Write a sequence for this structure.
């Protein structure tokens, strides 16, 4: 019996609900079957996003600013829905069912988008001279339905794929733990590979063969990936849900509010604690008012069990405090993704007006983002092969800390917007010199490379830094939520871009002029908008430095159990 149980993974079950057999479940093969879904999701989402603005402007005849906002709203919604997907996976469906359901939803969305771009009834007629008829409400409604089905599918998938992949490895087994580290490397590599295929092959098919063909390929490839995913059902390891951490956070907040008028006990030891000794988190002084959720009061127990909405353990309270400490860093990383949004909106629109030919071959405007992906891969390689060994030799540490990587990413985003402003000023001067007599300006599209490279290099630092920070600095039971919290920075960055575009459009165009963000970018001042983002990014970086200095990581302090609750500083003791 003991020998049989040695082959079992303690915290996982097989598809029948029995303890998972280590020799028959999990490992690299099932993990690889799961990663097929991820590469197809990247192919679909990025292949659509990077070239969507050219379709909205050129085919649906939307204004420049409205087209940019449509793209950023689409991407923002996709990442925001990661929270919904994570909640459903943690509370009801589990990761396997969540992946299956939302992958099917994405197939439906990409299939519908292929149909939308194929049928002439679902788009306005071509322009006659300078007269263009904008898409009507019905045509835009069908397009939005397809896009937001894709966004829903993306949100559900991104919240569960990485988690279900790591479920296939046992952290308590040293060999499998080492394999898990390689899984994360391959996971990020496949994200980059899917993006690379999207901005090259798929964008080329969209421009030269037809968008309906490209989107149809996305739908079919995801359908095949789903079949491959289902083929591994018997080999997967499944972990039981521990409940949604969002509910646990609300329980602490609700309990502390109910007991807000009660006085805290003199000693920490008087607060309620029922967590196992090995998993307990030491009490800290920050956000002291939340400690009241752990005060034992009459009526807190029902049938000898604590009501979690009335009484929470010290460990549960400290978990919530740990999540709250992440919020200032979380807030100051949002602006980076606002600058990122410009790379798939206005920067692509800039490229459509510039000389893109290499001999007889014309580079699709959306494929300029290949320099963005190349910057990510080059930066990761340089960091891994050069910077990390040098840093370890000089400082004795294996590379930059997560907060240092985030800081580097924020600095590079400021440089990107400054470079973009200078290039756009040059482009506008050329446009003015030809006085609108040419559809393609005599200026090389390769001048846009610096802004793509700076943002791509910045993402390599900030993405890995954020992911490392939110996973390592969050409670063990809230890793999924902290990953979702990280992804909401992408979502809010895109939404912030939409908000800024709307405000700038309204303010600068209020006197009868077209303003900074004109419908025709050759008549606007996009350089001023980029300059504004550079200034906001610089200010945000200063705020980030303050927040990073304030942040205090959780550290075990055994003596904490003996200290009193009486003397708490105003800075750290109040909510």
């Amino acid at each position: 019996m003991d020998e049989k149980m040695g082959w079992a993974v303690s915290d996982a079950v097989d598809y029948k609900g029995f303890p998972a057999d280590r020799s028959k479940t999990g490992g690299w093969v099932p993990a690889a079957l799961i990663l097929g879904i991820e590469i197809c999701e990247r192919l679909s989402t990025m292949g659509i996003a990077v070239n969507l603005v050219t379709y909205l402007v050129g085919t649906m005849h939307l204004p420049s600013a409205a087209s940019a906002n449509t793209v950023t709203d689409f991407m923002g919604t996709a990442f925001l829905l990661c929270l919904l997907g994570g909640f459903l996976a943690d509370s009801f469906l589990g990761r396997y069912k969540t992946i299956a359901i939302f992958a099917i939803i994405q197939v439906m969305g990409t299939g519908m988008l292929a149909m939308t771009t194929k049928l002439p009834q679902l788009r306005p007629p071509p322009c006659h001279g300078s007269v263009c008829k904008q898409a009507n409400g019905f045509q835009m409604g069908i397009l939005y339905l397809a896009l937001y089905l894709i966004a829903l599918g993306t949100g559900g998938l991104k919240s569960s794929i990485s988690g279900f992949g790591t479920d296939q490895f046992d952290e308590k087994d040293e060999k499998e733990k080492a394999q898990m580290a390689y899984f994360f490397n391959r996971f990020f590599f496949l994200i980059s590979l899917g993006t690379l295929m999207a901005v090259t092959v798929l964008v080329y098919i969209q421009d030269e063969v037809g968008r309906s063909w490209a989107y149809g390929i996305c739908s079919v490839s995801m359908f095949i990936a789903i079949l491959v995913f289902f083929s591994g059902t018997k080999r997967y390891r499944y972990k039981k849900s521990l409940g949604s951490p969002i509910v646990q956070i609300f329980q602490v907040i609700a309990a502390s509010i109910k007991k807000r008028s009660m006085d805290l006990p003199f000693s920490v030891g008087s607060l309620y604690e029922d967590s196992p000794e090995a998993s307990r988190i030491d009490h800290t002084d920050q956000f002291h008012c939340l400690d009241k959720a752990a005060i034992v009061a009459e009526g807190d127990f029902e049938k000898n069990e604590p009501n979690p909405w009335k009484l929470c353990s010290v460990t549960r309270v400290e978990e919530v405090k740990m999540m709250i400490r992440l919020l200032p860093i979380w807030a100051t990383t949002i602006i980076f993704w606002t600058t990122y949004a410009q790379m798939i909106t206005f920067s692509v629109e800039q490229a459509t007006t510039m000389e893109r030919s290499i001999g007889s071959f014309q580079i699709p405007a959306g494929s300029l983002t290949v320099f963005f992906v190349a910057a990510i891969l080059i930066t990761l390689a340089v960091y891994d092969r050069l910077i990390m060994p040098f840093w370890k030799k000089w400082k004795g540490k294996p590379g930059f800390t997560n907060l240092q990587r985030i800081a580097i990413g924020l600095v590079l985003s400021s440089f990107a917007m400054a470079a973009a402003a200078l290039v756009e000023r040059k482009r506008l001067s050329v446009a003015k010199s030809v006085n609108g007599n040419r559809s393609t300006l005599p200026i090389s599209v390769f001048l846009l490379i610096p802004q793509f490279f700076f943002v791509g290099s910045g993402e390599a630092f900030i993405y890995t830094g954020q992911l490392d920070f939110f996973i390592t600095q969050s409670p063990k039971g809230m890793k999924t939520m902290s990953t979702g919290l990280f992804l909401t920075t992408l979502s809010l960055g895109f939404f912030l871009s939409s908000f800024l575009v709307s405000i700038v459009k309204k303010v600068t165009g209020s006197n009868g002029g077209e303003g900074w963000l004109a419908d025709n970018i050759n008549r606007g001042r996009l350089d001023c908008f980029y300059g504004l983002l550079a200034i906001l990014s610089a200010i945000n970086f200063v705020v980030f430095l303050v927040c990073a200095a304030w942040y205090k990581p959780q550290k075990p302090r055994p003596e904490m159990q003996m200290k009193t609750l009486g003397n708490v500083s105003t800075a750290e003791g109040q909510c």
